[in-house]
Amino acid sequence: MTRVTIRDVARYANVSVTTASRALNDTGRMARETRERIIQAAAKLGYRPNSMARGLVSQRSFTIGLLTNDTYGRFTLPVAAGLSAAMVDRGVSVFLCAGEGDPQRTLLNLEAMQEKCVDGLVVSGKRIDRGLPVELPRTGIPTIYINAACPEGEVGFVPDDSGGAEAATLHLAGLGRRRIAHVTGPRNFAATGIRADGWLKALDRMGLAPWGEALFGEWSEAHGYRMADHLFGQTSRGMPDAVFCGNDQIARGMIDRLTEIGVRVPKDVAVVGYDNWEIFAKATRPPLTTVDMGLLELGRQAGLTMLGMIDGKPTPAGIRRTPCTVVVRESCGARSEAD
Amino acid sequence: MTRVTIRDVARYANVSVTTASRALNDTGRMARETRERIIQAAAKLGYRPNSMARGLVSQRSFTIGLLTNDTYGRFTLPVAAGLSAAMVDRGVSVFLCAGEGDPQRTLLNLEAMQEKCVDGLVVSGKRIDRGLPVELPRTGIPTIYINAACPEGEVGFVPDDSGGAEAATLHLAGLGRRRIAHVTGPRNFAATGIRADGWLKALDRMGLAPWGEALFGEWSEAHGYRMADHLFGQTSRGMPDAVFCGNDQIARGMIDRLTEIGVRVPKDVAVVGYDNWEIFAKATRPPLTTVDMGLLELGRQAGLTMLGMIDGKPTPAGIRRTPCTVVVRESCGARSEAD
DNA sequence: CTGAAAGCGCTTACAG
DNA sequence: CTGAAAGCGCTTACAG
């Protein structure tokens, strides 16, 4: 029942612990035959190196901490999956620390991570203009900020929301839409501003005028629902023929209301969402064309970068923007004739 | 820049490492004054015990592994948050291992957890009748199964779906509804059967006959949408005055379609969902009364139990069912007059 | 090519 | 009440 150690392996293979260690780590030079004999002995005995012992001497724990304040994890979970996948292949595991936006709890987690001697720290949030509820003490631990405010001189990863918004708008324009409105979340989120800029930029590129101003509000269905009335209620001033929404919930509310008041989607109005929250986007009637932020890949990239930082590779500070893509479903009519 | 160790603390407080260790761990007996002096020295120097070193000698890593195959984490995330909260207070951190339902990856994670010498393992899934895609090797590590198939002789946690379904149905009956239908997910999920039984049990208790059979299908809005037509399409055979839905998505589809065909919710028909997926339930028009599975608390309970198992406390095998509660919103009319 | 020894940072008998 | 020593399971100079 007691765990097999490197001593057991060494004894079994008739070598010293030193040699066993070298064979198992593929370092040093030794007779091929010896190395293989040792490796086979390890396999035979079901040897697993004790990473606490290994960490103690090598001063690396082969762990990183993921600090998140995104309780429901819609953003963090795909990121975590990508991160974890990149890491596990290299033998590093990730601690999940749910801060719940509470300074007390965050601090507790932070201390735990220090005691565990994590090799790196990933701070993951749900908005790019807010950091942790506490100041991160200067620990000297490599740190990456994902979807969170990234302090000067640190490295961050963020989806390229400007590019995503542009792509969405260009998709609409490419389908012949000319009067493209934008309904989005609260004005005080950095992301809304960036997406609105992407919308304007794409319109400008196409020589199109924006249909009114960006309609800021909440990230909710209710906001989309209300803005449908706002945009399509008074026919006097004409109507947009497309709406680019700041997230999928808004798009859902928009489409639901449009359907209720007899505006046909996509025939009369094309709608694009943002987030590609699949369970949501696919259930919208019609299924929602939306922007995917590529969070899984973002997490993977961040993981690779973290691995480099841990290995001491020089890593320039600054924010990396990873690509967003338009996922075409049916709410824009791109497939109305094709399929 | 180099980390402060217990030796630094000992030197600073003018005691041996042994005494420092005892003071910091609050073991042994020594002059109060000495103990306090040491603790203050530690605080002053910002000492954090190295848990790898501590783990090496105490044969405990103060970590557990959370193996999940619930990619999107709707179920796992609240569970993980509760688990983590219960654990962090006791100094144990949790590794997040996303198996993605892939045997290869799951195995890799499992090996990583063994190398990390986790004190416990939590297997978390999204359905109670499916386990990990690989057989868990007999490691002797305390293990808890949450929302996943729990092998004979192991300990598991699961929401009390039968009780939840009963409570939902009784809520409906208590509001005077007499013709209560049930629309739910696929027949081959264990949870659908259990919830359907709860529905029948509650009806029986109230002396009510079920309105037709349980309508199995998918866990989707589309299914709810279609079943609305099925239940309310032909007026010839009468209509239910309430529908208990197997999850919130089904309820959402149901309500959306009901509204479209002119059936008023809750006036004509009361609807209850299941899951209390808030972002969803709150956006439904009207906001959805639904069953909350208490996943956060379930996770906390599991964490406490795990802590006990790690400490060697005898823990009877078997499945624990944690309570589900009805969250009242507006889709049943419980508040139609009140508010 | 191989091994004995020191040491990573702790805890815990054991001795005083 | 306090400390010197051994040891947890590894890796890595150092010596041969």
Order of adjacent strands in the largest pleated sheet of chain A = 2-1-3-4-5-10
Low-confidence stretches of chain A: none
According to CATH, what is the topology of the largest domain in chain A? Rossmann fold
Q: Can you summarize the main beta sheet of chain A?
A: 6 strands, parallel
Q: What's the gyration radius of chain A in Å?
A: 26 Å
CATH superfamily of the largest domain in chain A: Response regulator
Q: Indicate the CATH architecture of the largest domain in chain A.
A: 3-Layer(aba) Sandwich
* Terminal residue distance of chain A: 61 Å
CATH class categorisation of the largest domain in chain A = Alpha Beta
| Count of folded domains of chain A | 2
Order of helices and strands of chain A: HHHHEHEHEEEHEHHEHEHEHEE
Mean pLDDT of chain A: 92
Largest interface: A-B, 53 and 53 residues
Beta-strand segment tally of chain A: 11
SS content category of chain A: alpha/beta
Strand content of chain A: 15-25%
In terms of quaternary structure, the protein is: homodimer
Task: Please name the defining characteristics of this protein.
DNA-binding; 11 strands; six-stranded parallel beta sheet; alpha/beta; 2 domains; elongated; 339 residues; Rossmann fold; homodimer; 12 helices
List the helices and strands and how they pair.
2 copies of one chain form a homodimer.
Chain A: H1 6-13, H2 17-25, H3 32-45, H4 51-58, E1 63-68, H5 76-88, E2 93-98, H6 103-115, E3 120-124, E4 143-146, E5 155-159, H7 161-174, E6 180-183, H8 190-205, H9 221-232, E7 242-245, H10 248-260, E8 270-274, H11 278-281, E9 289-292, H12 295-310, E10 318-322, E11 325-327
Parallel strand pairs in A: 1-2, 1-3, 3-4, 4-5, 5-10, 6-7, 7-8, 8-9
Antiparallel strand pairs in A: 9-11
Chain A binds a DNA duplex (16 and 16 nucleotides) through residues 3, 5-7, 15-19, 21-22, 25, 27-31, 34, 49-59.
